[in-house]
What does this fold into?
Amino acid sequence: MEMTVDARGLACPQPVIMAKKAIEENERITVLVDNAMAVENIRRLAVKLACGFSSREREGEVWELSLVRTGPLAETTDATAAPAASAADDDYLSCRIPPGKDAGPLVVVLSDNHMGRGDDTLGDILIRSFIHTLLQLKPLPATIICYNAGIKLAVKGSAVLDDLRELAAAGVNILVCGTCANYFDLGGEVAVGQISNMYDIAETMAGAGRLVRP
Amino acid sequence: MKRDDYLVFLFPSVSHALKAEKILRTAGIDHKLIPVPRHISSDCGVCLRLAPGQRDAVAKLLKGRVDWEAEAPLSPQG
It folds into this structure.
């Protein structure tokens, strides 16, 4: 049996609560919502319950979401009736602004060629793993900024050059601090991205929706 | 080459992986240190990614010098 839930005009967390109730009682539901936060929360609910999920944006800021049970629901207890559940379990009830087209771009700042402080051998492994893993982020960062010793990641012979090149090929804008390249005498060695200046770097950082610095 | 043609060597510790990497670097064998893929383990470890044709050469090089725990295909993503 199919059921349609019209959650347009309702504030978070109302749409996700209605969707949860509906999918608990029906094999397949369609939910109409009119904001990105509700889309994201219901998507998380579907993941949590191990349901199939698809969304289609209609005209005029309305999304049509489909949830289909693929088996027994992964979690059938009412979140409000399970005080033991951790906050993370009820992630889909969160009403924070989701990262999306309304927020600014995701920017990753590589300010060092190590990740974290304490041990440089470990920090070298960690930064290599981090940059390799960036390739699997969805969506990818809009921009990666390298400054100070972080520019050493973008020069010839760097162990992460292939990953950075792949990121650049996938559309990630890579800015390499020109002052830093000059200071380390690596101006001619920069092998990925574009040499940039503090104006672009400061503007990109200030305009970021989220700034990630490993 | 398709990404899922790659092979990974898994080690008992990060130090083992680093030691093995050093041996491969010295021998000039193409490799890459990557996080252990999620489908293999949820541990926060690292492993060595290799092209499939290098499996025997790598095993021969490492044998008796560094222990490794397992070999696995790298898929679905690299």
Q: What stands out?
A: Chain A has two domains: 2-93, 106-212. Residues 79-87 of chain A have pLDDT under 50 and may be disordered. The longest strand of chain A covers residues 51-58.
